[in-house]
Amino acid sequence: MSEQRPGASNGEAALAIICGGGSLPFALADAAVRRGRRVVLFALRGWADPERVVAYPHHWTWMGQFGRFMRIAAAEGCRDVALIGSVARPSLWQIRPDFRVLRLMPQVLRLFRGGDDHLQSGIGRMFEQHGFRLVGPKEIAPELVMPHGPIGARLPRDRDRADIARGLALLNATSPFDIGQAVVVADNHVLAVEGPEGTDRMLARVAELRHNGRIRTAVGTGVLVKAAKLGQDQRIDLPAIGPPTIDEARAAGLAGVAVVAGSTIVAEPERIAAAADQAKIFVIGVDAGGTGR
Amino acid sequence: MSEQRPGASNGEAALAIICGGGSLPFALADAAVRRGRRVVLFALRGWADPERVVAYPHHWTWMGQFGRFMRIAAAEGCRDVALIGSVARPSLWQIRPDFRVLRLMPQVLRLFRGGDDHLQSGIGRMFEQHGFRLVGPKEIAPELVMPHGPIGARLPRDRDRADIARGLALLNATSPFDIGQAVVVADNHVLAVEGPEGTDRMLARVAELRHNGRIRTAVGTGVLVKAAKLGQDQRIDLPAIGPPTIDEARAAGLAGVAVVAGSTIVAEPERIAAAADQAKIFVIGVDAGGTGR
Q1: Of A91, A116, A209, which is closest to B196 when you measure between CB atoms?
Q2: Most exposed of A28, A51, A188, A271 (fewest Cβ within 10 Å)?
């Protein structure tokens, strides 16, 4: 490739990883490095974990510094870009737009009128319009993508499978509204729909509702169901689970966790399996219709 | 009517009001009494407000004491029954079933497999199968039902109307799943979907999300949208707003509150109007398609 620089290895240009919060950016970076690929982290101020960022070649950046990103990425020989990790929807002033973004402002303002999905796919398009190739975890590291079937020893019972099917149907219905990618269903009863608070806070809410008696299904009932939105750009912001998800699901008194195989990121599957077995909950990859092998 | 007893006045049999929590049961009782009707409150233990119940003819009861209810209601000359006030979905053992309910157990167990709406309409059917007539607030006290148009001085702006329309469309989509009857939409972005926690806790969540920076739309943006579920029995559990709703909406930084005219209960509309004007937010009754006169 013409963009290749001496720093790139393995015949591929370096991978730019735009890092939000959580451990996923580093799991992705490690997976790319394992394949002999050079990575450059663009750590988003306020989101990326400073203690972990230092272990990689990196540049700190504000969200709106697109011109700066383009200059550094070119100098680093990056053509492929991955966007990964948690980022709350920013306010317009918080993105600290540089000159390049200011020129794109009409486009940016339109993006901000939509939901998260709209915003993210628009940002993806911006990168592509400027000659970058947006790559997703599936392409970089398929081992980070949830497989079909269980992780860990437990399997859902029939009643759990009914809750999974209901959860997936609800996520399908809310998908056009560009909201959360997760719900909790217990005994055919919807306990929570995820909003901008994220899965962790939603599960904490379920735990609290159980604690204060607002929901009264038995402990060990109910499933956290996560799915990508319909038509979502699978290169950006796939739903993800990690070991903390298992702890939170256990604390919420759930029977298990079901995610859509092939479109959910799984950080540290071995640790997830161990945590699930210890918590006596199931973790299963299902197809979008709700069945798991 | 053959069921009429000396206690009944105004040519109508006494009205049995099965009271959950909050002030709505008393607003309904007062409205019936203003019409010269005798009321008998069946105060649900754990839910009805003991301090207010004592002002009315009343009997304390557990949720599952259907046989006892029937005996007392017959002795009191009640044929019409209203179910009103907040009640969390009970666990099966918490309803303290009496003998009559135990005989109906197969039916009750089926009810418990569905969502709240399913449970409520099933309970309504149980009353009707035993010779009672289920009556709703619209029939007893139309002045408690939200009118079309604004309450208070403020009106929604165009952007608020767009948020209202999006909120109503989302509530339509989630309606078959028998979940919450309220959402918060700000600047076309869904901030929260109500679950079993109730509107007050959902609004507190929005306030918290704003406070900790997880949502960043400007204060004074966003609408609480409430609607009855599609096909909901309008005699039971209509969505309701009261003066506290206004305080909570203001604390969540919203521009206003929109509810569906004709199928929302409004306790104390004058106090709501005063609170809304003071909080500088609008309160409007719209049709299910989102327009308000």
Answers
A1: A209
A2: A51
Write b or e for each residue in B57-78: b if 16 or more Cβ atoms lie within 10 A of its Cβ, otherwise e: ebbebbbbbbbbbbebbeebbb
Could you tell me if A220 lies within 8 Å of chain B, comparing CB atoms?
Answer: no
| Chain A residues within 8 A of B112 when measuring between CB atoms | 187
Q: Find tokens 């973004």 and name the residue.
A: A101
Is B21 near chain A, with CB under 8 Å? no
Smallest CA–CA separation between A194 and chain B, in Å?
A: 8
For strand B78-84 and strand B149-151, is the pairing parallel, antiparallel, or unpaired? unpaired
* Whole-complex ipTM: 0.74
- Structure tokens that stand for A233 in this block: 């750009």
Interface check A191 vs B, CB under 8 A = yes
Please list every residue in chain A whose beta carbon sits closer than 8 Å to the beta carbon of residue B191: 195-196
Give the closest of A89, A193, A213 to B195, CB-based: A193
Alpha-carbon B221 to chain mean position: 26
Q: Which residues of A touch B93 (CB under 8 A)?
A: none
Strand A189-193 to A182-186 pairing: antiparallel
In this structure, the number of other CB atoms found within 10 A of the CB of residue B35 comes to 13
Distance from chain centroid for Cα A258: 15
Nearest-angstrom CA–CA distance, A263 and A248 = 21
CB B227, CB B263: distance < 8 Å? yes
User: What is the reported pTM?
Assistant: 0.79
> Rounded distance, CA A275 to CA A130, Å?
43
